[in-house]
Amino acid sequence: xxxxxxxxxxxxxxxxxxxxxxxxxxxxxxxxxxxxxxxxxxxxxxxxxxxxxxxxxxxxxxxxxxxxxxxxxxxxxxxxxxxxxxxxxxxxxxxxxxxxxxxxxxxxxxxxxxxxxxxxxxxxxxxxxxxxxxxxxxxxxxxxxxxxxxxxxxxxxxxxxxxxxxxxxxxxxxxxxxxxxxxxxxxxxxxxxxxxxxxxxxxxxxxxxxxxxxxxxxxxxxxxxxxxxxxxxxxxxxxxxxxxxxxxxxxxxxxxxxxxxxxxxxxxxxxxxxxxxxxxxxxxxxxxxxxxxxxxxxxxxxxxxxxxxxxxxxxxxxxxxxxxxxxxxxxxxxxxxxxxxxxxxxxxxxxxxxxxxxxxxxxxxxxxxxxxxxxxxxxxxxxxxxxxxxxxxxxxxxxxxxxxxxxxxxxxxxxxxxxxxxxxxxxxxxxxxxxxxxxxxxxxxxxxxxxxxxxxxxxxxxxxxxxxxxxxxxxxxxxxxxxxxxxxxxxxxxxxxxxxxxxxxxxxxxxxxxxxxxxxxxxxxxxxxxxxxxxxxxxxxxxxxxxxxxxxxxxxxxxxxxxxxxx
Length: 567
Fold this sequence. Notes:
The protein has 567 residues and is mostly helical. It has helices at residues 3-31, 42-52, 62-85, 102-113, 123-126, 129-159, 169-195, 222-231, 252-277, 280-307, 311-314, 331-344, 359-370, 381-401, 414-440, 442-445, 452-467, 482-511, 528-562; strands at residues 205-208, 214-217, 406-407, 410-411. The chain has a domain at 380-562. It is globular and about 75 Å long.
């Protein structure tokens, strides 16, 4: 472990904390309708409601809120699919690319609607500029807004007492985009352009190298797509190389900035929660648990990548950093930190090939996703996933002390526990089910490109990424085969909308409850003891569910590596 690595990780965590608190408070003000420095946009908000025929003062029950949210995303899925299929008839297609094939189009639009951005295609050779801007980038905004709306509805359920409604879904979606996602995207896009991220509508440039060979350099509106794919925890990339491409991520400063963009809003939502329930101590406990798990993964992954492959020492070579699959201009520490961030948060952006990480370094990225993406997690989805773990922890603590569990003054009963379990276990079930099918069926095994435990890791990673709406890829799996196009698409859709339905049902149950004042027997949830219990529950649930798969995959691969076997 080097001092540079330690200081870089701690500096990243410090900057994140300094940004998360004020941004979280700002987000709370936006959704509570308070005046902010963006108040000049209120006339624009009003125009949007009038054009859409929306009454912003009409609140909704959880069933109505969920119904409109699902309908909104269904239309996004249908319209996006048709636009991808017909992109050859649409403008901004300088390469005259054909329409996207049916299975790939469905997989792609399912990916972007679910905030996953799993990509089984090469962006610069498959998608026109129109598809990149008006299908994929638009869904980057809308899918992020969907997750944010779900989290805000759940927060309101804790803040309100004996009510029937959770707010207005159209207002929440509009404010998410208008006051939060769009302003930050506009500013940061200009910063990225100043650093060398391209933004144009030019056709590819044909150049001749010093060796006399022809080279085609792709162009396009990259900066506008780059910023929202990161800020909205979407992931993916304009180019096949993703954030390792110099046109997406030119230098170490943009690498740090882009990693911060990925994680800042999920971290800030902890303090949005605290502000809206008027209990910032509770926010700090949740944030502290997330940060502890994040730092544990970051130090482990960075240590493994900095120390590299131990077999080099046996061959008489000095052991250096593992630079396979990494950009030399970024190095091992920056790449490993980015990999930890993008898998702790449900974002598929990558600046190195995760398939080339050391076995334990790769296990960190897998474990981050297998917790259910609650180590900050996706925008909105990370917070409501963590709250589900909080309710389970409160329930277990109540069993230990022989008292009905309570959280923020609301009794946690059988219905709330069942819904919390659904939020946590549905993605886990999907990972195990589809992974089992992939290794059992010839169609699934056909896509595995590595032998032994590394091949199993490829499959586990693919479905951990899609079922938890992360979107990053190990990079070795042949994901454009029909088997994986269809199974990953359904893993993404079910992994997104089944837990979201459970979240809103949970919110509907909680919002009707009265708030009970704390008594001497109430288990406190704002201290270090509760934080330790919460960490234990997260680790135990993950270990019990996925330890056999991790043992047969990356752990076995690490042991075989020590014995001199490579895969």
